[in-house]
Design brief:
The chain has 25 helices and 22 strands. It has 613 residues and is α/β, with parallel strands linked by helices. The chain is elongated. Helix 12 packs across helix 13 and helix 14 crosses helix 15. The strands form 8 sheets. It has an 8-stranded mixed beta sheet, with helices on both faces. A two-stranded antiparallel sheet has the order 1-2. A hairpin with a 2-residue loop joins strand 1 and strand 2.
Length: 613
């Protein structure tokens, strides 16, 4: 459009500069495409980007960072259009889906701004349907977005953590080297585990679900989510990661993923601009009889419409809400068929009523969401009200261990501030995984008179009846024998009824025992609130510093508790995680109000271990 060559206007473009235009429209204004630092987008941009992507083979950190920033986070300081735009016009119109920076910096005054946001469209869709039942809703095809965040297992987060709350560092986790078929992940074994997790086939995850009695829906495993993953966009850190993911998905062990056509929309081979979109459209076709995964590190994340994309997996760190939601809303474009039967021009078959964003770094994702909600309502003094309005139309479901639950506005802000929410933190102490009630553990307690005396002092235990542990063990052994007999087809009708009754009874009693032990565990956060020691392990605080307070709060003596810990009734690994989560939440909550509760801490104590502060 500028049409300049060697500083002069090209002859074929002179007419553009001779007209005094009524209006000049700048689209994707947040992207800064018309600025001095991004004029390549007007002249020679494709060659410049191609040169930089080709330079990735050098694999220097500096070049990789430049590519990532240019591909996905290009937002430079702004100077007036008239300083570089060699055409005349009466007015400018600036269009952007995420103009937060421009609004925040006061580039436009209030009377110059017209907003039509995601919440506006969803609110209008809902209101129109309610006010005009039976009529065609012009907003009906605009899908509602849901954000699912997943807390990855400790063994995966341990290899890639960073930041104040040890957030899962997606860029490090998906770090890769090499090019083309030689590209491979730095943590390949762990990325393979992640692939198993998102399709619900990770063994450790299955054990946790069996213990907790709950099953969280994972993207490529849940029957209700799978239809919206037929065509998905995976947003990765860089070109090497995209190529490494394509290679891993093709390996023999990943049979599940072979159903999907994988398109690498990254690197010079993918083409520039709309050329990168053609392979995606070919892989998708009509979208009904195909499955596809588009891998990208920046291409196709702005100004592109692919109706069949219904899900995006956020697999890279993005620091600005502008970039995050520009990418996220790629999947919110409508997909519908007008007049499907050919006999009613007002009829519309909606193929995508909802769409999904899946994120595996919960703290960062919810921080982005809280900023986005506040930016959508710059005049709202209470951020919780702003986020609440957004959550009315963009529900957030957070997975924290084995539980997936919907968050309210206060919890989103808690999570953004402290790396968890008060409710999810409390649930860590209500988790069935904190206690062990298998037969082996119960037998150790039963065989130890002191341990039996200790559990009988737990509040509500006596209400379970006499010999409850012995009953559970005996009945479970009976059930095991009857089931073994059933395999050989030897059970009589009476024995089948006995099997059913015995199984129901021992499972019911085991559940009651589990609940009593969990109820005791929930007293521990109250003890931590009341004690003021932070550098020491909780074990030391209980044993050496505050034994009387522990007895008052929990009802057990120090000796009782440690005996039960030695017998593995309580899971110390889970307790360490829960204690550290409490410490982080407490410190962040106090820091938010300007209070440093324990200045100069060199270390922070967990249950039986310490970490550097």
């Amino acid at each position: 459009m500028l049409g300049k060559e060697g500083g002069a206007i090209k002859a074929r473009n002179e007419w553009i500069h001779e007209i005094n235009w009524d209006l000049v429209v700048f689209d994707e204004y947040h992207f800064g495409a018309w600025r001095e630092s991004a004029k390549e987008l007007f002249e020679g941009e494709e060659e410049a980007i191609a040169r930089e992507e080709a330079a990735l083979t050098a694999r220097t950190e500096k070049l990789i960072e430049r590519i990532n920033e240019k591909a996905a986070d290009l937002q430079q300081p702004l100077e007036p259009e008239t300083d570089f735009l060699p055409i005349t016009t009466r007015a400018y119109l600036y269009l952007s889906g995420t103009p937060f920076r421009q609004i925040r910096t006061g580039e436009f005054i209030e009377e110059q701004i017209f907003n039509w946001t995601y919440t506006d469209e969803q609110r209008t869709k809902q209101a129109f349907g309610a006010a005009n039942p039976g009529e065609r809703n012009p907003y009906a095809a605009l899908p509602m977005v849901s954000l699912f965040t997943y807390q990855m297992p400790d063994e995966l987060t341990a290899i890639a953590s960073q930041g104040e709350f040890d957030e899962f560092d997606l860029n490090e986790f998906f770090a890769a080297s090499g090019a083309g078929i030689l590209a491979t992940f730095k943590h390949k074994d762990d990325v393979q585990k992640w692939l198993n997790i998102i399709r619900g086939s990770y063994n450790a995850q299955t054990v946790d679900q069996l213990k907790s009695g709950t099953k969280a829906p994972f993207p490529y495993e849940n029957a209700r989510l799978l239809p919206y993953l037929n065509h998905a966009f995976w947003f990765l850190p860089n070109v090497a990661a995209c190529q490494a993911m394509a290679n891993l998905l093709e390996e023999k062990q990943n049979v599940f993923w072979h159903e999907y056509k994988v398109v690498v929309a990254a690197g010079t081979a993918a083409g520039m601009g709309l050329a990168a979109l053609d392979p995606v459209r070919k892989a998708i076709g009509g979208g009904h009889d195909s499955k596809s995964i588009t891998l990208s590190c920046g291409k196709l994340t702005t100004g592109v419409t692919v109706p069949q994309w219904s899900s995006i997996l956020m697999l890279r760190n993005l620091q600005s809400p502008e970039t995050y939601f520009q990418a996220a809303f790629r999947v919110q474009s409508p997909w519908s068929i007008k007049n499907p039967e050919g006999d009613d021009p007002n009829a519309e078959q909606i193929l995508k009523p909802v769409c999904f964003v899946f994120d595996f770094a919960p703290t960062r994702a919810l921080r982005q969401l809280s900023e986005y909600g506040a930016n959508l309502s710059p005049g709202e003094p209470n951020p919780e009200n702003a986020v609440r309005d957004l959550l009315s139309y963009l529900p957030v479901l957070a997975h924290d261990g084995a539980v997936l639950r919907q968050l309210d506005a206060g919890e989103v802000l808690d999570y953004a501030m402290a790396g968890t929410t008060g409710t999810l933190l409390a649930r860590k102490w209500e988790s069935a995984m904190l206690v062990n009630v298998d037969n082996e553990t119960l037998r150790r307690v039963l065989d130890n008179p002191e341990a039996m005396a200790a559990v009988e002092r737990i509040e509500g235990w006596r209400a379970l009846g006499d010999n409850v542990i012995e009953t559970i063990i005996n009945k479970s052994e009976t059930v095991k024998e009857l089931k073994k007999k059933a395999k050989d087809g030897e059970l009589s009708k009476a024995e089948k009824k006995e099997l059913s009754d015995e199984e129901k009874e021992y499972k019911s009693k085991r559940k009651l025992v589990q609940e009593k032990l969990i109820k005791f565990a929930t007293r521990i956060p109250a003890f931590m609130y009341l004690t003021d020691f932070r550098e020491n392990t909780l074990q030391d605080v209980i044993t050496k510093l505050e034994p009387d307070l522990f007895l008052t709060v929990t009802g057990l003596t120090v000796e009782d508790f440690h005996l039960l810990v030695r017998l593995k009734v309580f899971n110390t690994e889970r307790m360490n995680a829960a204690v550290f989560a409490f410490r982080r939440y407490e410190n962040a909550s106090l820091a938010y109000t300007g209070i440093d509760s324990h200045e100069g801490l060199a270390q922070i104590g967990g249950y039986d271990t310490v970490v550097a502060a």
